[in-house]
Amino acid sequence: MREGLIALSSARPRYRELMTRDLLLWALISLASKAPVAMAPLALVFLSRESPGGYTLGASLASAYVLGEVVGAPLLGTRLGRGRMRRELSAGLLAGALAFGALPFAHSAPAPVLLALAFLAGGAPAACPGGLRASLTKLVGEDLVPRALSAEATLTQCIWAAAPGLVVFLALQVHPGAPLLLGAVLAATASLLLLRLPEPRAAEPAGRAAAPMTRTLLSGWPVYLTSAAAMAMLATAELVLPALLEDRHIAVGWSGPLLAGFALASAAGALCYGLRTWPGSVRVQSLVLLAVTAACVCLITLLPGLGGIAAALLLAGVFQSGVMVTRNLSLRERLPEHAHAAAYSVMYAVQGVGYSATASLSAVALDLATPSVAILGGVAITLVITAVSAFAERGPKPRTAAEPPTFADADHCA
């Protein structure tokens, strides 16, 4: 009996099992493709800072970039399940690289030209995050998928933590267009490296009676909604943070280190989530983690001083990353394999919509109430949305007409 337990413990998947040639290549591609995304909004602001349009033009370019991501992700992502994913992702990254590279050289062009380039830079490679995530889950065995997604979340948060400082350094010390040129080089590098990655096996719908792709994707709406709600709650805290610091007579310059700490805490949380198997279904885990994250965000408004705000943000970051990993796992469980790449792209777009809407609502809330009330309002809205989506997820997993009932459905009924 003891020998069996030792064997079972040694057979448990570990992070070092992800250290294969294909996965290391995937990690390099992910780093090169996500860094331009993390750098783009702030880089566009610095590009326009000294132009006649100033910060207003920079904010408009950043908005056009995000709008390109929101529009491009679902439109291009729905094509990824039809095979030849590598070529489509590579072409999108190359088009995005050209747009990134053109922006610094066209900085004196009319505003519509710059807005079009920013839109193209965001839209052309918008299906890449979802496509790369789907590729990752096909490069590993089923037992390694949670750890692989946790490692992806860790890499993403590290990129987001480093990007602002890199943009500021390059824009102020080298050239205002240097961050965008670096983004162009990285996107082009990812485009070339993608062609060396193994082509993911194209999964086909089960049988002729399989549901259309649009209907299949729409059936995942509870997961999309919860993901957007979680993103919106943290976006509220991030966007209102400078106003909260000023309201408490704390230097606004602390907002940068605090947000960097939040991103690093999220990276650590994602890494910890993948270290072991946690009790309960991923749906239950997601709801618990989201509730704990909401409590930590509320603590931002209650704990006194800079230390209290920092502690609450760090705790929120640790648990928030677990929410995002479990949402990705929930989407895999809810939808068939052939829809995974497109579904990840749709979720990416919905999160962008949630973040953009939160930015507008935060501005309104700050005009009507204190920063603390604005944050608490964002948390309350998030919890209401989460309750709605959690109730919808209680139903059995959607399946095609050709797909027979599974033991999972029987367990749900029990």
TrEMBL record:
The chain crosses the membrane at residues 23-47, 53-77, 89-107, 178-197, 218-245, 251-275, 287-303, 309-329, 341-366, 372-392. Keywords: Membrane, Transmembrane, Transmembrane helix. The keyword Secreted does not apply. PANTHER family: MAJOR FACILITATOR SUPERFAMILY (MFS) PROFILE DOMAIN-CONTAINING PROTEIN, PTHR23542. One of its GO terms (molecular function) is transmembrane transporter activity. The keyword Transmembrane helix applies. This is MFS transporter. It comes from the Bacteria.
